[in-house]
Design brief:
This protein has 485 residues and is mainly α. It has one domain: Up-down Bundle (Growth Hormone, Chain: A). It is 80% helix and 0% strand. Helix 5 (74-94) packs antiparallel against helix 6 (98-126), helix 7 packs antiparallel against helix 15 and helix 18 runs antiparallel to helix 19 (432-461).
């Protein structure tokens, strides 16, 4: 189906709106958790499942969602995922019990996994020209990287102005709009891999492996990282992963062709994605906790504190980032962006108990906005570049899985380090706020190390696409146009 330019860009905005709903829901509940706990009577431990149930199914079903899109058509799966996510959001918003809310959050995660895995593939199919694809990826990148911090802002506004139910109910009209506009604007896509058969054994083993791993990670703090439960679950996940790799090496139509990771940029981009997501989750969650629990900000004030970073991220993602990739290729913008983000986290690692917004918060937010806005575009292009169109959904699912796993693992590790440092400061007689701040300092420091490590891996191992001509625009154009081959 041929599309005029205007319709193509409108279709992109529809895909971005659908993906924004998904990304927002990772962080939008953060500032509303105290209200949810009070209203539904959650304990401190059970409250974590409002976040974890979503992460569990989201991380667990990303690969399967991507493969189903490749088999049965990306638009069909996108519509199904948005419909499921919207209905689950309605159930979350109307939930009057802990069990109903947690169950509906798990269903939200399932719908989110499908949408996330196929939205990027649909976008890559819409745009095959190098310059257009770079610009489209910048817009999509802003939504994906900025959505988390926008979620903190929106969560604060809705919780303060209305109540916590609205952080979920707001998805319902948006979801209905996305479904209607998708039918009108997004072209039907036949499954390019439709001749293949679904690898059921591979799907079951990798999904079970991911779910066990996420379950172990999100419960690690509570059960203890060296407890029999945590080690047993991680061991079980590792055994299932090994079984999955054995199956993939033998079956005729594998869920994940292992040759995908022979593409150097794809493999490196996924490693960078894991490390960067760990750093980004430190920003979204830990800085929100510092602002709320140490500086005493209201949910709305926490949200507004993220606004400068969001605006900068948006301007960079949509404008400058695409031009930087076309001019310099992947490595320089990626490494520079990640180092700026690492610097922002380092500044948070020295934020005092009586910190002021202008001196101790704003510089970090600006640096993190600059870094995220600059780095997301080249990372996603590297992760998708060189992949055959029939594997686009899979490649998208793989990099999204890397982000979710990195985020869940990174957040669990950083929260554990923060809690441990706070406890030791408490035990030595420090003031409670000083102890809390000291815990956050350690977590921000390690988050900065994650971002710096991601920059080093990307700068050292990513390859410029095509042959090196000395002109970054030629190099980047080659990667941006690979899908049209």
């Amino acid at each position: 189906m041929t599309m005029d330019s205007r319709t193509r860009w409108l279709a992109l905005y529809v895909l971005c709106l659908g993906d924004l709903m998904i990304v927002l829901d990772v962080t939008i509940v953060g500032v509303a958790l105290p209200s949810i706990r009070e209203d539904l009577g959650f304990s401190e431990t059970s409250l974590a499942w409002v976040v974890n149930a979503y992460l569990l199914t989201f991380g667990g079903f990303l690969l399967l969602g991507g493969k189903l899109g490749d088999l049965f058509g990306h638009r069909r799966l996108f519509l199904g995922g948005i419909a499921l996510f919207t209905l689950a959001s309605l159930a979350c918003g109307l939930a009057s019990s802990q069990e109903l809310l947690v169950g509906a959050r798990a269903l939200q995660g399932l719908g989110a996994a499908v949408v996330s895995a196929v939205a990027l593939s649909l976008m890559m199919t819409l745009f095959t020209e190098a310059a257009d694809r770079a610009k489209a990826m910048g817009i999509f990148g802003f939504v994906a990287s900025g959505g988390g911090s926008i979620g903190v802002l929106l969560g604060g506004i809705l919780t303060d102005a209305l109540n916590w139910h609205w952080i979920f109910l707001v998805n319902v009209p948006v979801g209905v709009l996305v479904v209607v506009l998708t039918f009108k604007l997004v072209p039907e896509s036949r499954g390019e891999a439709a001749a293949g058969r679904l690898d059921v054994a591979g799907a079951v083993t990798v999904t079970a492996s991911l779910i066990l791993a996420v379950y172990a990670i999100v419960n690690g703090n509570q059960e203890g990282w060296l407890s029999a439960q945590t080690l047993g679950l991680l061991g079980g996940g590792a055994v299932l992963l090994a079984l999955f790799l054995g199956i993939e090496a033998r079956v005729r139509s594998p869920l994940m062709p292992l040759g995908l990771f022979r593409l150097r940029n794809v493999a490196v981009a996924n490693v960078v994605g894991v490390l960067w997501a760990a750093a980004m989750f430190a920003w979204f969650f830990l800085s929100a906790l510092y602002l709320q629990l140490v500086l005493g900000y209201s949910p709305l004030q926490v949200g507004l504190a993220f606004l400068p970073g969001n605006v900068i991220m948006g301007l960079l993602s949509v404008g400058l980032s695409a031009k930087l990739v076309l001019r310099y290729g992947f490595r320089l913008p990626l490494a520079t962006g990640l180092l700026l983000a690492a610097t922002g986290l380092l500044l948070f690692a020295r934020a005092p108990v009586d910190g002021s917004f202008v001196v101790d918060v704003l510089p970090s937010m600006i640096l993190l906005g600059l870094g995220a806005g600059m780095a997301f575009n080249p990372l996603m292009l590297a992760a998708m570049g060189g992949v055959k169109p029939s594997d686009a959904g899979l490649a998208s699912g793989v990099v999204n899985t890397a982000f979710m796993m990195g985020g869940a693992l990174g957040l669990a590790v950083l929260a554990s380090l923060a809690a441990s440092r706070t406890d030791s400061l408490d035990a030595s007689g420090s003031d409670s706020l000083v102890a809390l701040t000291g815990g956050y300092h350690v977590a921000f420091l390690v988050g900065a190390l994650f971002a710096a490590a991601a920059a080093a891996v990307g700068a050292a191992l990513l390859r410029s696409p095509q042959h090196a001509t000395g002109h970054g625009s030629d190099q980047a154009s080659g990667a941006l146009a690979t899908e049209s081959n």
